[in-house]
Design brief:
About 70% of the residues lie in helices and about 10% in strands. A hairpin with a 7-residue loop joins strand 2 and strand 3. By secondary structure, the protein is mainly alpha-helical.
Length: about 160
């Protein structure tokens, strides 16, 4: 469902209905609408959304192993391996054997990948700032903290 259809559907629901006040619907609809806005910038930069997730994760922690990268980027591991292969061929990432355990492979941003990542992370931060500024009477930092706490409790 596109963000525009989500917004229209949300407008047509009563405020006291189950779905319109259901936490999981609200989280999914807000994520879909906000992500849709930013993903236009990702595609304009020549990336697919899963590639953006990989680049953003590596921007935070360059040299991740694929298992951890799959978890952090919310991409199934076998699909992520194919994405990494494509990104490697495009010169965005490279694989290197782990010096401590030669059976492990780590993924690193190339210079080109770091440049793309820095540009898009700056754009993502600006987009996030706009989103948080649009909240009525709520603190964006409080919302982020609440969501982080929720994720921690769900992952226990």
């Amino acid at each position: 469902m596109t963000a525009a259809r989500n917004n229209k559907a949300a407008d047509n629901r009563t405020q006291d209905g189950f779905v319109s006040s259901y936490l999981l619907y609200l989280l999914a609809a807000a994520s879909d609408a906000a992500s849709s806005q930013f993903h236009h910038q990702v595609r304009d930069a020549g990336l697919r959304v899963p590639e953006w997730r990989v680049i953003a994760c590596l921007f935070d922690q360059d040299g991740e192993m694929i298992t951890r990268l799959a978890e952090y980027s919310l991409i199934e591991q076998s699909r992520l391996t194919r994405i990494i292969d494509q990104m490697d061929r495009r010169g965005l990432v490279q694989r290197k054997t782990d010096s401590a355990d030669r059976r492990r492979v780590r993924v690193y941003l190339t210079a080109q990948g770091r440049k793309v990542a820095a540009t898009l992370v700056d754009s993502a931060r600006r987009h996030e700032k706009q989103l948080l500024a649009s909240l009525e009477g709520a603190s964006g930092e409080n919302l982020k903290h609440a969501l982080q706490s929720l994720l921690q409790s769900l992952n226990r």
